[in-house]
Fold these 3 entries.
Entry 1:
Amino acid sequence: MDNILANLQLLTSLAPTINIELIANGLLVGAIFALITYGMALVWGVMDIINVAQGAFVILGGYVSFYFVNAMFQIAPDTPRLLWIILSMPVAAVAVALFAHIVFKLVIERILDRDLFVALLATFGIELVMQQGMNQFFSAEERIIDAQLPTFAFMDYMVNIPGSRLLGASLGIVAAIFIVGLVRYSRFGRAIRATAQNVRAARIMGIDTNRVYAMTFALNGAICGIAGSIVAFVYVIHPFQGLVYTLRAFAIVILAGIGNVVGVIFAALGLGVYENYSGFILGPEFQDGMVFIIVPITLLVRAWIMRRKRQYLK
Amino acid sequence: MAQARTSQWIASLAFLAIAIAAPFVLPNNMSQLVDLMVFILIALSWDMLGGQMGYNSFGNILFFGIGMYLVASTQVWMGGYSLAEYNSAKGGNLESFVVTAPVYVTSLIIGLAAAAVLNYFVGLFVGSQLLQTRGHYFAVGTLGLGVAAGEFAGTMDVLGGGSGMNFLQPPEGVNLTMLLYWLGLGTVMLFIAFLIWLHRTRFGFVMNAIRDNEDKAEAMGLPTNKVKSVSWAVAAVFTAIAGGLYGAGKNFIDPTEVAFSLPTIGVWMLLMPLMGGKGTLWGPILGAVLFQLFKEFFWTYLFGWQRVALGLLIVIIVVFFPDGVMGGINALRERLFGKAKSAGESGEAA
């Protein structure tokens, strides 16, 4: 209790510049969360599948990126690191998209018309297979790509922002703009949205909805791959960390609602800031728990609000 | 209906006979048998909501973990030691904390009773709130709650923090696995008898009505909210007892790996009713037995890859055999003898 008060005092009076650092770091990590959540909301909205394996896809993307960058350093040690890190994004995207497509063909396709609980449990199984498989293949060691970027200091070294976070967030924003643009303006994107709005009508208009489902799931894989390659050089990659990313995405989707892109962005940035603050005030051991508890609390608040209108969350 | 009831009593007596014989037939597999009793308890209590009421919870692990911590703490406290002192001594001289055999046994039983009572109210409270959400929102919300509980348990220094806590060492003269097995079997038989009785009461029918159509049940004036939270509270009681037994058997509590371990026990307790056939009385029990066999097989022959195999098992069961063994038996019976005559019976098996 005392250290919490001391931390609060630090934030409010002793060293208010820490606030800037916390908010900046929160917003930067929030950009990655937004990317991951956009993929989850896409699959949820279009196919009515809640993908618990989302986090495992992200981690898989991180491993692909890690091994790609390391291999490239070995082959061509004199080339700039940044080039390979940026190039690893499309590589991871393609690799995870292919993996996601295999998962779709093997499992997801068979549970499309079943209820959501089946999807939850089946993707949970996939998450377990992936996390344990990655643990066997890549070992339980924490991996990180060293981007060798400087840490930028502002305000007489009171505010420190690692360059890798800045790079990661900006790459994430570029990727997000590209993907949202794809869904908004391309023919494929229009087919996705038509399927999400009304499957029957989309079929009547000649859209191959099964193909749309497959493409959507692969696109989600690509998004996770990109997010994973960013996570690999900004944070760390560990086989068992997937569920944390999944639950963050849950929290953001529930906060924002499905199909609300602007809401997802704001909720993701907000969650990033909230996470940094709770980690700082309560101590780092509370950080994950405070994120997870957001999921039931948001649901409860939404349920209370709807109860007054005699409705319920379904 | 009376006939069905008699056959269920006969089946439970047969189960009891097998369970009593089991320790004498398999004396070398006692810890696996204890686990089996734990699994039957958590599978049956998950099925109360998931199978009978249509609320698929990922968060029953919450009660499991609370029960485990509570039993361990009660034992330390009744042994006359301070919990904080006991947990800070971990890793070093835990041997100095000794209790006599009668104290160990009574504190274990009182701990289990305390866990049962406390978790009834935890279940009632959490249920009255979280059961306001339906369908997959309930599943996702309970999932968040379950993992959050593990993280928060890991921050409490009085409970040993992130590195967990040990159970008291059983003193000389206490055959721990035997004790846990008979306690577990007693609770299982109590639970089975309770469930057979419950599903013939109005309360049990309201549970099924909620599963079939909650809006209609509510419109008929049935007390759906009360039934939902009380059912979850009862499920919480038996899950907590299972948690206490499991923890005492394992002798060690890790907040996220043992007590509130969603990726292992937390998912297994859903898988077992699905394997056996959810929404039936004997499905979860059969599922627990099958699951324990699969698990032991994987652990023995696929060491290192056993968790991958378990994950694959989940996917395969969910995708290809969602109705489980009992569902298969019922489908077979319908094909051979036509539809079951009693509407209540076939509705229950659905």
Entry 2:
Amino acid sequence: MNALLILLGTGLLIGLAIGLVVKFVAGPSDPLLDQVNELMPGANCGACGYPGCAGYAAAMVKQEAKPGACPSMSAESIASICQLLGVSEEKRERKVAVVFCSGDDDKATRQAFYNGVNNCRDAMQVAAGAKTCTYGCLGLGACARACPFGAIEITAKHLAVVHPELCRACGKCVQTCPKKLIRLVPASAPIHVFCSSPEKGALKRAACKGACIGCRKCSKEAQENQIRMNGFLAVVNYADPPAAEVAAVCPTGALRGNIPGGKAVVRQEEESNA
Amino acid sequence: MPEVFRFYGGVHPKQEKLARGAAIESAPLLERYTVPLQMHIGAPAKLLVQKDSKILRGQLLAEPGGFVSAPIHSPTSGTIKEVSTCLGVTGTQWPAVIIESDGEDKAADPLPPIADWQNADPEILKKRIAEAGIVGMGGASFPTHVKLSPPPDKPIDTLIINGVECEPCLTADHRLMLESPEQIIKGILIVARILGVKNIFLGIEKNKQDAVEVMMEKAKGTEIRVCPLEVRYPQGAEKQLIYALTKRKVPSGGLPMAIGCVVQNIASTCAIANAVIDGIPLYERVTTVTGTPLVSPGNWHFRVGTLYEDAVRLAGGVKEEPAKIISGGPMMGMSVYSLQIPITKNCSGILLLSPQEVSQYQSKSCIRCGRCNDTCPMQLMPGILSIQIENERFELAETWHVLDCMECGCCSYVCPAGRPLVQHMRRAKTEVIARRQAAAAKKNS
């Protein structure tokens, strides 16, 4: 009983002391800064280049940074911040991350059994992963763990998939992917080539049923320069993206739309806790 | 009874040296060789030949791309079929040339032999070693001429020759010592002449008593001191061997030359003697092909660019499907998934393991038993480091000297929780080095 009282008493005393110090010692707060801070997304992803949301907010208030460098912020928040700070708003295109690979367990073959650390970057240290296609997604979830917004799902068939409605284009996954499979592309582009292997068509086909085999059907179907051939790999020209209907001609399904709607699966840590 | 030397930590794995009795044989000529263009640490070699050009054995295929680099010579005579890529032990594609042999194996004019090497100018000897493309053949493949060019402020007083071969299963260096001791002794004396040292140790583990006796016999009348070492892995690691023989410690992040030592591998000294006395560049090495799934494990003189597949065929093929293929020894070798990989200058062994020998387990949490700390020859704390690395705290790992880890695998070997400690260290080393390079690039720009 005594112990409990002592503990409670100490807690109260320290709490009081902290409260007093905050009240009398801390300097006056900047109401403008507080307002801007309220509007920040609070993900602290660091994509703006500042140490967290508070750092970026302070820089904006000091007029050192412009609103809009934060890829995670909603358009309304940017507009409100611009209004608060009295600066004009710059229009920017919304981007999303796309994992350019189709090789899930059904499509891509494996040539080894990997039983090491459950992280793509670790698996890279062991003969660059177990997949036959050396360019393909390892599906061990380094990008999903790096994503502050839970926008990347590792499907049950071990392929990383970005849910575009949750992606805020912070670019963390782009830096994390050891196979360099993730790029930020305009969200308005309806279809993408989900393959990154520059190998010859037959080789790719043997390693993965979902690969782009370089048949050029799509580049003929689309308008000029909408899809370009980079060796044996079709590449969407994001300055002038092709219409969604073009995807129908792809024989392997490598050219397709991003997965529509749906809710991203919870991140792996949360999953293991549940 | 001569003195026996040892170092801190380490383990004693089963030796399993199946091929220790198999004399080195010459591998027959193949129809095709796949020669990678980077078989050394440093700048990639620059290709000198094109597709369809005719080449002779020992002809220069690629010249060094800088000081820390090495040339590459053709393993046989024939035609360049293709300049493309090949699968490397890292699992990535390496630039390579594919040579179609003409079956004649005609030699190009050798480099002029330096018969009077005892009195030759050290600079000429060093130049020859660079021309012959000699690299550290124990595994690291560091260009030998760079190792033999210490800066003037780092005087070298001790030369250590590494005949330890502490990796289980491998027997290539052992057989080489038994079969070409004279050549090795000459090679050692050439290196000693280049460095101008009189203090020469040759370390050999006691499990190779026959090699110790042969080398002691042949080293009589020279300054070479043959030292039998207690059998303990990783005795053949550079820093451990230096400590065992001289009680000097290489500072963290430093090279052996910081404490006046140079370490050379047995196979490299043999290649040096071949290059200097006979003028033969390095295009051939002794490699052990071993493992229980093989019909007849053995040691062969393989030309560089021989595919693992051909090496395994030479060893009689397999009795049973191997579960694991390792390039190198079982402790430090790289796991590979294909036999379409060429033998490089630093490939000391090809090891196949049967399904019974490969255990599958799920790694568990660290139980803080501390056995990894006791066993780490670099005196790091692998268990605690691995927990930090799992949480991607690489700055902390850097301050805790993760870069001193040489990936010997002792910690993983003793860990009762089956933690993939070496894989964690390897990841952290890559990340720390990448960060350092990024920081340096930022500073320069």
Entry 3:
Amino acid sequence: MQEIRTRYPKYDVLKEQEHWDEHTREIVKKRLGPFPKNNFLSDHEADMILSIAMHIVYDNRKDILDYVVHHMDTTISSPIGEDQRKVGTPEQKTLIRQGLKAIDKLAQQQYNASFLEIDPNQQLSLLEDLQKGKAQQLKDWQQIPQKELFKKLATNIVSAYYSHPIVWSEIGYGGPAYPRGYVRVEKGLTDPWEAKRDDKE
Amino acid sequence: MTKNNNDYVTHDCDHYDSHRLNHLNKRKYGDEADVCIVGAGAAGGVLAYELSKAGFKVVVIEAGPFWNPQTDFASDELAMESLAWNDTRLVAGSDPLSMGHNNSGRGVGGGTVHFTGVFYRFHESDFKVKTQDGVADDWPISYQDLEPYYEKIEKDIAVSGPKHFPWGPFQGPYPYPEREPISANSQIFRMGCEKLGLRSVVAPLAILSAPFDGRPPCINRGFCNQGCKPNAKFSTLIHHIPKAIKHGAEVLSDCMVTQVNVDKSGKVTGVTFVHDKKEYFQKAKVVILSNFCIETPRLLLHSACPQFPDGLANSSGMVGKELMTHVGHDVYCKFHDEVRIYKGTPVLAATQEFYETDQSRGFVRGYTLNAHGSRPLGLSQNLVSKADIWGQKLYDIMRDFNFFAQITLVGEVLPNINNLVTLSDEKDEYGMPRPIVKFSYGENDNKLIAHGIKSSQEILGAMGGEPAFVIPDTGHLMGTCRMGNDPSTSVVDGFCRSHDIPNLYICSASVFVTGGGCNPTETVMAIAARTADHIIEEAHKGESN
């Protein structure tokens, strides 16, 4: 998809894990896999989530995206609520399951192939239409509000992606800091263990 | 589908075994409590403490778990989304609110467990908006009524803040010294203000700057919104509730109140609650609802009965009406050098130069600007869900995560009868109807937003920041059971006692008449302390009669 751009190529936040509290370390390390079999998502649905995720987070590294798919599956399988849902939008399980079917139908209608078979540019343009609520007419959109479907998928994907320690390292995020805390917080200062730029202009 | 079994949410955890009986049939005050408080958040915690200290038999019923910061909290945004009230609320209106972590807590401590700790008093003008600006309504109480309680709360929890606070009637000093050092983001904010001739301060915070009450000062870990592990940030979970338990209060966590019960004379007899799918009744002489702006009206409306067909305490029809939030737009500017907004306490600097009405601006009321930190999940989630930024654009922004500075508005939203909480046909796991939360900004709000964004960009611009993006966000909830002197237009009186039912109180941000232009928690707690005093006085009156 693209070259991984980072200002902190030498930084690996996971090297700091011995300084994290145990509970946090356990939570973060689980994101590296391996992941159990999906609970709710079928293989086809999981593959679709993975392809959609590539566009949402503009990254195609499978090791990270596998966690993203796992997180989606965990979220949908959980009985815990979804904070808020717009009136007229179905529950997230239904929204995603029916939504993915509708996305496949849309790809068929527009390109005569399933979503996974069309090329990445076509996938992207389809997702852009969904986000704007301007995808081609389909009966399904009466039950599945396009924008809400896009938002639900994208928000869940982004939440998992930016919780992945490899991504933390790339953006130079210091991450967990308990019990040691951050000592040098003022302008221009960094703690010795924080990410340092290699591209100082 | 085996809906009843699988959809039942249990987040049970109870680390205070010695203080909570495992068998709910053998409760401490199972026969009858003097006071039953629903919700162990900012208000519920203060009420439980003050009333148990005064000798009342107090039972606090909390829907969520009794957290242990050491074992339940983590330095992780995603995992700690569980601190929020995650139960689905249906949202509507032209500016549907984002709920959950954005504005409500679940579990002992409520929202104080994940609030930012920013601790302001309201100004005198906030209580008389109608008199002053000809809009909204005046409160039945004044700043002077709350002043002693503001002072008490600040001392009780050792608020840190500046020696001199230049806005409003309280000019400082705060009980504990201001936080030092402040983060780069807050330094940039203060320097930008100075260049523009705007006064700024180190934010007053319910976060310790020095040891207090067996708790350590802040270590700038930065995860205030994920639950403070070191216990440097105040919450009622670690302050008021444990003290209340020592004074004899009983806390029933993981217990969801589903009904407020009334007898034939129209008085409240207690509440019905559910624990592990079993229903229980808690009898009480007085019931106080401190379950915040959505759950309080939901419970009152759901408790409708033949005497009160429109819901309890609702003869005015105002239960659920005039829901308010704060404008919470996040303004980001990009800098040439790293800022690293993830470091330290999120809010360490602020200005209230734009707080009071200034007719020349073309709108009434005003706002606070808080220099505000962010972390990767919070920022990226907001970008995609609130600003429609995703794909390559999101990637590009996030790769430069360390180069943005952020200011967050806390702006007053005027009350509007069309912003409200009602009941839907959809049922939750307890068989209660899910609430519908409807919200739209009004004209004055939108003008205030535009002004606040411009001021923020000017402050960061003065330091060389380039406007990057603005996330239309909100913060806090207020209203839905407003106080007032007139029972035909308000739900409770100035002491939070319901006009319709003498032994039913509502005490939380739900009683706010207007929202003010700053973070509301201190005002919630001051109101709770005043209500506690009132209940104590009323009881003494009863005794001497």
